[in-house]
Write a structure and sequence with these properties.
Helix content: 25-40%
Number of strands: 24
Radius of gyration: 29 Å
């Protein structure tokens, strides 16, 4: 991982319909958060749910949390005996407290857990876990020891009891006063959730996570961010108040944007978002990567393209693969791609070069907050990896299935359409007396058909007139027998 300090900037654009937040690393878009009013984010929300179905065969259950789709829970997320089957732990019509861990994606409902947690800026309260400790991402042993002593001390003095608490990475350098203040706040929050659970009729919402602009202020806006700029006055005031309580020293870095040029256009973010619809991503040295997303799997192909900068073919391929590995890590975060990912790097003969590429990929994904697992590279240059999926990908959010190609990404070739038309003309005129034909097609197909018009007329022994209709789709056509 590059140890040079990265200049992080955060820009938030809020319109009537959606909130978009862009994270820039050294001026380059690296992460994008998106929330629409029509489908607001529910990850982190806590509900009082009713068990609808228990399915022992797949160790899962479905729950009504009061939304259109039922949520599902897997046995590993059910509190109780670790070795007990799910139908012993959950019963139909049982009332339980659950938290959403993954939003509904495509046809799948949202995923929930009974192991509820409440995150703050420095701490995460885990009411059903007794563990009190420090995040593994804090690598400095002296700092880990200091924070461990503080959290154990304040946990005892605040009667944390059987509740657990984890110190987050953001707590590096934080003092005892800040940590204790946040722990007391999280304990009060949990007490409120418990009281609502006892008195509310299910299904119902017990706790809603803070909105997107405040989540970013809590989880991402830290000392390594030089600015957090928002173009909505209400959001600006809310974030300023929030940051004043959490990290007063960062308050001056929160700015309000009121220029006439839209904020995302002014900082070239809008153009970068448009690029996310492209399947092909060009690399700086002439190579490219092709990203093809499916519902639960994403295939990424690496190509050398024009890159011939190194001395030998092996060096050229390795350099392209390393650059591609770094860009793949960025694109996974930016496009919010989750699930199983297979990367087809260009073949390398030397095992040492294959290891260099995997090392580059592992270093590049360290800044990703999603859980990632990378398997060793194969001799064919394939790398399999998984990335935690909590919400639908940016590509899925921005696009929908093409009505012409039905999601395949391809349409019939012009020659295939011509042959299809000719076959239909033959079937239509077979055994029928003479008469002229009119064929109406997409404008771009007119010249292609006219080049073969003589042959088409000869095959059916009658005159064919070809017309265009801009209202027709590429594969659509009309054949009229006069």
């Amino acid at each position: 991982m590059n140890n040079d300090k990265i200049n992080k900037e955060i820009f938030a654009n809020t319109s009537f319909e959606e909130t978009r937040i862009a994270i820039l690393d050294d001026g380059k878009l690296s992460e994008l958060f998106w929330e629409r009013r029509s489908s607001s984010n529910i990850v982190g929300n806590i509900y009082k749910a009713v068990v609808e179905n228990v399915l022992p065969g797949i160790s899962s259950a479905f729950m009504n949390i009061g939304l259109e789709k039922n949520a599902y829970i897997y046995i590993s997320d059910v509190l109780g005996g670790q070795r007990d089957p799910i139908d012993r732990l959950l019963k139909k019509d049982q009332e339980v407290m659950v938290q959403v861990t993954k939003d509904a994606i495509s046809t799948k409902g949202m995923k929930v857990t009974m192991d509820v947690s409440l995150p703050g800026r420095y701490l995460v309260l885990t009411p059903f876990q007794e563990f009190v400790g420090v995040s593994k991402n804090i690598e400095n042993n002296e700092e880990r020891r200091r924070l461990s002593e503080i959290i154990k001390k304040i946990a005892e003095s605040n009667n944390l009891g059987k509740n657990g608490c984890i110190v987050r990475t953001e707590a590096e350098g934080a003092g005892e006063t800040e940590l204790e203040r946040e722990l007391k706040y999280l304990i009060r929050l949990w007490d409120g959730v418990q009281k609502r659970f006892e008195t509310s009729k299910p299904p119902c919402l017990l706790h809603k996570d803070i909105d997107l602009t405040l989540q970013v202020a809590r989880d991402i806006f830290s000392d390594d961010a030089s600015i957090y700029m928002l173009d909505n006055k209400d959001d600006f005031h809310n974030v300023t108040d929030f940051v004043s309580k959490l990290s007063p020293d960062l308050k001056e870095r929160v700015k309000f944007y009121d220029a006439k040029t839209p904020i995302f256009k002014a900082f070239s973010i809008e153009k970068a978002i448009e690029e996310l619809r492209k399947v092909k991503v060009e690399l700086a040295n002439g190579g490219s990567i092709i990203i093809q997303e499916a519902e639960s799997l994403c295939a990424i192909d690496v190509n050398t393209g024009r890159y011939t900068g190194s001395k030998s073919q092996e060096e050229t391929v390795t350099a392209t693969n390393i650059e591609a590995a770094q860009e793949v890590a960025r694109q996974l975060r930016l496009r919010n791609i989750g699930g199983i990912i297979v990367i087809d790097f260009i073949d390398m003969k030397k095992a040492s070069n294959r290891h260099k590429v995997v090392d580059a990929l592992e270093r590049s994904v360290r800044r990703d907050r999603a859980k990632i697992r990378i398997l060793p590279i194969t001799r064919l240059g394939l790398v399999e990896m998984t990335r935690e999926r909590k919400r639908e990908s940016t590509f899925s959010l921005l696009t929908e299935e093409c009505k012409e190609c039905h999601g395949s990404g391809r349409v019939l070739s012009s020659e295939s359409v011509r042959i299809k038309i000719q076959r239909e003309i033959h079937n239509l005129t077979l055994g029928r007396p003479g008469g002229n034909l009119r064929v109406v097609v997409h404008p771009l197909l007119v010249d292609i058909l006219k080049k073969r018009q003589d042959m088409m007329e000869k095959n059916v022994h009658r005159s064919i007139k070809i017309f265009s209709d801009p209202q027709l789709t590429w594969e659509d056509y009309r054949i009229i027998l006069e």
